[in-house]
Structure formats: structure tokens, C-alpha cells
Design goal:
By secondary structure, this protein is mainly alpha-helical. Helix 2 packs across helix 4. The radius of gyration is 18 Å and the shape is rod-shaped. The two termini are 30 Å apart.
Amino acid sequence: MRSWLTFSTGSTPSIRRIREIGIRMALGERRGAVLRRVGGGAFRLALPGLLVGAAPSAVAGQLMAGFLIGTSPADPLALVLVAIAIVTVVTIAGLAPAHRASRIDPAIAVRSE
């Protein structure tokens, strides 16, 4: 459930930029450049979220320590894996609408909205 919320939050900025992506494609920007720009933006969106969420997750981990089996609240491997998962979901969420927008005809993308 949390991954879906993260995905939808990460994809919203890209969905709003479909017209911009269409204009860039019409002006000759390559598909790979568009995807790199949007993917980088999604990645930059995920990093502050990780930093802001680190302190509350440490507190929540200590509160839920009794429920954890086979790991500790400050297990570095678990924390790194969760951070990688969050960054991956947000980056994919940003790239999915950009990938769709880069495949449609630029004239249609410009006329949308």
C-alpha cells in the first residue's frame, strides 16, 4: 500500500509535464534526454524525502522494537534496503509517465490539457 502511495506521489509531477515533454520533443529533444531529465527530477524528489523521513523512522523503529523478529530497529542493511526500494519506486514512478509522453505524437501532447 505504501509503495502505491509513493508511486502515485512520484508520478504526479511527470503527469503534469506531459505538455512540456511534447513541446521539447517537437523542438527536437531526444527521447533519452527527456527520460534522463524526468528521471533525475524524480530522483531529486526522493532524496529530501529520505532525509526528512530518517528521524521519524528511527523513532518508529524504537517504538516497534518489540515487534521486530530477527533484526534490530537500527539494522543498517534493512535501512539501506528500504532506502533503495523507496528511491527505486519514486524513480520508476517519475519515468513511467515520461516514457508514455515521449512515445506519443508531440502535436497530441501539446494539444492535451
